[in-house]
Specification:
This protein is an alpha+beta fold. The protein is built from 11 helices and 12 strands.
């Protein structure tokens, strides 16, 4: 036996007490867990949710998982953790709603170099607020401390969401018909995609600081633009599904890969889709990234949403009323294309 003090979990870098304090703080602050169907409280070994209250006829459960990507590095550098929770929820539930599903609950996974209860609480508060806005419950999660693998202030964030939809009300490529219209839902910024390229161009190659104007004469900073929380499309799409039953045939959430690649996922092989962006404003941050990086148009289209965060494929006779309902909810929407005969092609201009 040497003269060394006995090894402990704390001496290895894991603070169990801090983790318990973080869980206690989260549990006392959660609001979205009041959703009907939630059983028990945060802090158990698993979250529980009852479907009995829904009155479903032929329910299909739908599941998604996603993260926030390297936008987290911007949040860490800026010391602003309150908005990326919105991004996490949006990336998960906006995928869910593309099937027509109502989001029921979400679980989060947070990996940190060192548990700081205040920082953990700030992150989770953003997730909870977004869940509350969407109407799904933050049912539980995990905070894992990874000393030695991550620096004390580093973190990563992932989510897993479950929704429900009646079998005969599912959206998808099988419902898309020739003559359908495309309704584009606007995105005011990057949301959570293309950050590897945006960070390289703005922060590394161009040497821009987070606290300086995003462009000459801008009232907003680089940080404001890069940390703007993702639009949550799910509640707006769900409202359309409720008020215009049968009008929406499919939906494409524009994430990594851009508009064309994601729209192609809901265009059947015997049809083609043409989306016209002529009347859709491209947020200034994209033109600034392209200018500073000398990025080609096709590369921009692969990396970024360029102002379109979701596309609905809609019965042409009802597309104007669908767009109007989205607009009434505060999201700019416009009829911007159509579906024709083809071989699965998607064109965006």
């Amino acid at each position: 036996m040497t003269g060394r003090l006995p090894s402990t979990y704390a001496s290895a870098g894991v603070d169990v007490a801090a983790g318990e304090a973080a869980v206690a703080r989260i549990a006392s602050a959660l609001r979205s867990a009041d959703r009907p169907g939630v059983l028990g409280t945060i802090g158990g070994f698993a979250g529980r949710f009852s479907l009995r209250e829904g009155g479903w006829r032929d329910p299909v459960l739908v599941a998604t998982t996603d993260g926030v990507g390297t936008k987290l590095e911007v949040a860490r550098s800026a010391g602003v953790l309150s908005t990326v929770g919105y991004d996490l929820v949006a990336m998960c539930v906006d995928d869910l709603v593309c099937t027509g599903a109502e989001p029921l609950f979400l679980l989060d996974y947070l990996a940190v170099g060192l548990v700081d209860p205040e920082r953990v609480a700030e992150l989770v508060a953003g997730i909870d607020a977004a869940c509350l806005e969407v109407g799904c419950a933050l049912l539980g999660g995990e905070t894992a401390e990874h000393p030695g693998l991550m620096a004390p202030d580093q973190f990563d964030l992932a989510g897993f969401a479950v929704g429900i939809v009646e079998r005969d009300e599912q959206l998808g490529a099988e419902r898309v018909a020739e003559g359908d219209a495309l309704v584009a839902l606007a995105s005011g910024g990057l949301r959570s995609n293309g950050y590897a390229l945006a960070r390289q161009v703005l922060l590394h190659d161009a040497g821009r600081r987070l606290d300086e104007p995003a462009w000459d004469g801008a009232a907003r900073t680089v940080q404001d633009e890069l940390l703007a929380p993702s639009v949550l499309y799910a509640p707006h799409v769900r409202r359309v599904l409720a008020t215009h039953p049968g009008a929406v045939h499919a939906a494409a959430h524009v994430t990594g890969g851009g508009i064309a690649a994601n729209l192609a996922r809901v265009v059947p092989s015997h049809l083609a889709a043409n989306l016209d962006r002529t009347d859709i404003a491209v947020p200034r941050i994209f033109t600034e990234i392209q200018r500073l990086g000398g990025i080609a148009d096709d590369e921009m289209a692969r990396a970024f949403n360029l102002g379109v965060g979701m596309v609905l494929i809609v019965d042409a006779a009802r597309c104007a009323s669908v767009a109007a309902t989205i607009n009434e909810g505060g999201i700019e929407a416009s009829v911007a294309g159509s579906v024709r005969a083809g071989h699965g092609e998607v064109s965006v201009r």
